[in-house]
Design goal:
45% of the residues lie in helices and 22% in strands. With 450 residues, the protein is of the alpha+beta class.
Length: 450
């Protein structure tokens, strides 16, 4: 029965002409699409590779028979090369995929033809990677007859649009991309006011799963930024903070070199995460510059000038109140008082030593070079070079101690300025990092939930 029916249908069949008895009759082709897998998304070349199950359905008026004459056969499979097949193509095709060849199609006794085949589709798609790795891509597959006008071949949807939209029954949902939905739309178009063509558009909307990129890209960068913030708690007058910041900056540079191949690259734009990495690198550089500035201020040098009065008034008085640094001011006062007390003690000791040798005032001894002595020792010390040498040595020691104490006071003042400036810059840096992180987190959360 199968052989007789196949011979009956194909004996005088002409596959080169459209299968209608009246040329005015339009051949209606119903198409359907199910996405099986997202194979690859090439952001650089703007190419989407998908694997779909494609189905066509049309009526062939020359492939009809009476089932009672052929052992009640209502359906038969025929070679696809032996019958007429509509020239339905995808406009976005950029390359021929490795699709398996299906040599047969089904024909029912009413002349209804079903062409079912899987297709590996490589199509051009305008990929927007600005929101990477929380991006959602919308790629279209446009099916149309390349030659026949809408009067000859018209297109329609096999199933209801709602059924096509959320059909994930055959989709492999274990890859990087998640299928959200498939929209369908019919439209007509014409080229240079010529006859119209029918086309059926399918919009494949997919979303990237960001877990891999969050763990391997975002979290290490966030950890490094947290370590940079924690590094501000190292003492500013030690050199460990500078070496720590430099090591952190070098580590972040190596991290960017490693992840550069993971980021998508296009000639159109840069993803936001690339800008995020650049800004993080800039923040690390700013943090290092701030640390170098603070270390330069608090470093003790013998030729440091006094802190200008406007700096004292701005940082040690107004900034401490603004930043709620009460203990710094108290420590500064206590340190100044202790310096005055020690200086007074040194002066008293020097005066006592000089008075022991008969000078009521050390300046008098210094003025006359130690020539004015007490009456009890005037006769013995008159013109004694030994006594004059001792007095000069004591005076030099006193001047040296006073100079050293003055240097200590200057270094202490610069240390206080450095501490206050360090707190001020740290809080400004922390506010900038928090504002930047909150902005990016909000944007990515909105894009992910959109």
């Amino acid at each position: 029965a199968l052989r007789r029916l196949s011979h009956y249908l194909l004996a005088h069949y002409q596959k080169g002409t459209r299968p209608v008895r009246d040329w005015r009759t339009t051949t209606n082709v119903a198409i359907d699409l199910m996405v099986y897998a997202i194979l690859s998304v090439d952001e650089k070349n703007q190419v989407l590779t998908t694997y779909i199950w494609y189905r066509q359905h049309w009526t062939d008026e020359f492939l009809r028979w009476d089932p009672t004459r052929f052992d009640n056969l209502t359906q038969i499979s025929l070679p696809v090369e032996s019958i007429w097949v509509p020239d339905i193509l995808i406009n976005e095709f950029v390359d021929v995929g490795k699709s398996p060849h299906v040599p047969y199609i089904y024909v029912s006794h009413h002349g209804e033809v079903q062409n079912l085949k899987p297709i590996q589709v490589m199509t051009a798609c305008s990929l927007d990677i600005y929101n990477f790795p929380f991006d959602v891509q919308n790629c279209s597959l446009t099916f149309t007859s390349w030659l026949h006008h809408i009067r000859d071949i018209n297109l329609s949807l096999w199933r209801q649009p709602e059924l096509v939209k959320f059909d994930r029954s055959v989709f492999m949902n274990q890859g990087e991309w998640e299928l959200l939905y498939v929209l369908s739309r019919f439209q007509e178009f014409s080229v240079k006011s010529s006859d119209s063509y029918a086309e059926m558009k399918f919009y494949v909307v997919i979303r990237r799963r960001p877990l891999f990129y969050t763990v391997n890209l975002l979290l290490p960068s966030i950890f490094m930024m947290v370590m940079d913030i924690v590094g501000f708690y190292l003492p500013p007058n030690s050199g460990e903070r500078v070496s720590f910041k430099i090591t952190l900056l070098l580590g972040y540079s190596v991290f960017l070199i490693i992840v550069s191949d993971t980021l998508p690259a296009t000639a159109v734009g840069t993803p936001l995460i690339g800008t995020y990495f650049v800004v993080c690198m800039a923040l690390l550089v700013i943090s290092l510059m701030e640390t170098i500035l603070i270390v330069r201020l608090v470093h003790k040098q013998d030729l440091q000038p006094h802190v200008p009065e406007w700096v004292k008034r701005l940082l040690l008085e107004q900034a401490t109140v603004l930043l709620c640094i009460r203990d710094r001011k108290k420590f500064s006062r206590s340190r100044t008082q202790s310096s005055d007390i020690s200086r007074q003690v040194d002066n008293n000791d020097s005066t006592a030593k000089l008075n022991h040798y008969g000078c009521e005032d050390p300046r008098e001894c210094e003025t006359v070079g130690g020539a004015r002595l007490a009456p009890a020792f005037a006769g013995q010390a008159e013109g004694s070079p030994l006594m004059h040498g001792v007095l000069r040595e004591i005076t030099a020691i006193r001047q040296f101690l006073e100079k050293r104490e003055e240097f200590r006071d200057v270094a202490h003042e610069w240390l206080q300025v450095g501490y206050v400036l360090d707190v001020l810059l740290f809080r400004a840096y922390l506010a900038a990092v928090l504002a930047y992180s909150i902005t990016l987190g909000t944007l990515w959360s909105v894009w992910r939930d959109a």
